């Protein structure tokens, strides 16, 4: 007996006949609502993510991927598409981008990625994404139930058994979300409180960065200011306490370091003993040798290796790091975070260069052998230009003829069909799998791709619909492609839950149900 049928049998003896409830309908509704709370989701997806991390440790070809989604519907359609094309959602996650919340979800209107948006919008988007993913489950299972009913009516037992097997082994659209908590939106208590809300909404994985919370900048902008390790570790602890308090013991913490592009710090930590974390952090500060006689009023002085020095302080009170120390600071940040409770790393880089990433990871793994990265395949990079220049530089190093190529003009369309451009595109195509094997990258994400796809598709439709093509622009470029591509949204009433509602009405009201899916429903035109 199938699990589905067994669940029906177990219910049959527990329902009062006078209630006129159908056990099979109850089982169907339960299966359509597998995850009843956000904590149920967080617990399930944490297990999934830990399993995937272990699989990657065994074989780096088993890396994972995600796309950033700024609305529940976008996330839902992404997972439906993945399942349609690849038959499984294994290894595919969602990414929740603080950048996109700031740009698209703030009540203030569009904002830069500087933690100015409402912190409550972060757990709100997590809850929204999972609401839409759960609805995707209900939608797909509803179609299976209808197919099962038809097979039974037709007396086709073989088909009915096949559908029952699909129901018993159903794979949910609910996948892990890597959720961006920025720099924690305040002190460690504020970080803890927000982390709790995010976990209660369903987050199994929280990403936190080592920038100053009230001076946070986008990872690919200038003016980034980092905090001492002690401050960052306190926030990692705060997130871990939130996971543990809520019973999500497998919760995942991604520690992001912005030190590669951050040349400033807000404060100088107090060293308790030689060589401690504070001492190591302070060793990166740019200083000037001084004497007591040459020191000026209100100077801040430090004794370093027996020498009296003055840290370079900017007019805004911030302190500057020595030039060229970025990679060393990244390595120390990563090792320290992993040794104090983080599970995964995020190194924000200025370009997508496997050699650069691998060099840092090799140093980190000397101290923490199983160190793994989440990496931002950022739209802030000019991928075409970066990789064409990487090929150019490699060919130049190898002594290959570069006649006809100008390095600073390689973005030009005149190179699109060239051998160099083809080699660059091949490297871009293989970037994720190569970086997973060579640079320890467990998870590849694109932070804000759907921001760009929404703008691009809207531009295409607006240009043609309001131009000469008129209605043909929508029919040819949208509806016809939906029909021929098997994209479920062509039946938008069904996608929004109309058929689910009709079936529920029939459960509740029987033959008296007023349903929307009769012969006059224009959705029937799509077969």
Low-confidence stretches: none
Mean pLDDT: 93
Name the shape in a single word: globular
Please work out how many helical segments DSSP would assign.
Answer: 18
Name the beta content range. Answer: 5-15%
User: Count of DSSP E strands?
Assistant: 14
> Which strand order do you get reading across the main beta sheet?
12-6-4-3-2-1-14-13
Distance between the termini: 34 Å
Backbone structural class: alpha/beta
> What is the CATH superfamily of the domain at 30-265 and 323-401 and 438-446?
Phosphoenolpyruvate-binding domains
The CATH topology label of the domain at 30-265 and 323-401 and 438-446 is TIM Barrel
**Main sheet: strands, sense, barrel:** 8 strands, parallel
Helix content: 40-55%
Radius of gyration: 28 Å
CATH class of the domain at 30-265 and 323-401 and 438-446: Alpha Beta
**CATH architecture title of the domain at 30-265 and 323-401 and 438-446:** Alpha-Beta Barrel
Give your account of this protein's structure.
With 527 residues, this protein is an alpha/beta fold. The protein has a domain of 324 residues: TIM Barrel (Alpha-Beta Barrel). The protein is built from 18 helices and 14 strands. Strands 12-6-4-3-2-1-14-13 form an eight-stranded parallel sheet. A three-stranded mixed sheet has the order 5-7-11, with no helix packed on it. A three-stranded antiparallel sheet has the order 8-10-9, with no helix packed on it. It is globular, with a radius of gyration of 28 Å. The two termini are 34 Å apart.
